[in-house]
Amino acid sequence: MDMKRVLLKLSGEALAGSKKTGFDEETVRGVARQVKQAVDAGVEVGIVTGGGNFWRGRTGNEIDRTKADQIGMLATVMNCIYVSEIFRGEGMDTVVMTPFQVGAMTELFSKDKAVEAFKAHKVVFFAGGTGHPYFSTDTGAALRAVEIEADCMLLAKAVDGVYDSDPKTNPNARKFDRISIAEVVEKHLQVVDMTASVICEENHMPLVVFGLNEENGIANALKGKVSGTIVTAD
Description:
It is a single chain. This protein has helices at 12-16, 25-40, 65-89, 111-119, 137-147, 181-187, 194-202, 217-222; strands spanning 5-10, 44-49, 93-98, 107-108, 122-126, 152-157, 162-163, 175-176, 178-180, 207-211, 229-232. The mean pLDDT is 91. 38% of the residues lie in helices and 20% in strands. The two termini are 14 Å apart. The protein is α/β, with parallel strands linked by helices. It has a single domain (5-232), classed as Acetylglutamate kinase-like (Carbamate kinase, 3-Layer(aba) Sandwich). The strands form two sheets. The chain has a nine-stranded mixed sheet, with helices on both faces. It has a two-stranded antiparallel ribbon with strand order 7-8. InterPro entries: AceGlu_kinase-like_sf, Asp/Glu/Uridylate_kinase, Uridylate_kinase, Uridylate_kinase_bac. It catalyses: UMP + ATP = UDP + ADP.
């Protein structure tokens, strides 16, 4: 795959490493070093993180759903600010953009500003999801990928690809090397949520799904070396 500009989606849990919550600095530095290989090779990289290492809106059943989702958006802002600083420590220039004002801590998102940052060889972090409740970070990532005209969206997941059933519970689950986004939607395969799947399908945005714990998995995916699953959008 020709990857000149990509959107990398990282789960919040990925940032916590074995700690399962908060941040694990060495884990994040490992991610940064892999991304730097691609940046140094001229690839433009946008990043969306989840917030699950701090909060999951859908699990906050004891409070209003809108407020729970807003807490989740702020969790992704904290994640992006932290990760962007680790990236800077590894020698990359970064900018954090949000769909709402966060004082002087982030920049307000616009496609034009994001493209300018890419041209300046900066890694762009898209925090805050879509800025609205009832939308996941999957949907936010798909939306940003389409808006910035990324060549593909990379998904670093706990599972090393797309399967026809849950490989954690079914030892006979079959892994797809390649599958269309239309089949993902039709078969309700859990790659990204349904809203994100439809955005990718309608806008012809391919996805690459690979194992987060795979050695050099992010670096390889950014180079177009896919050991997981390619989800085509044609």
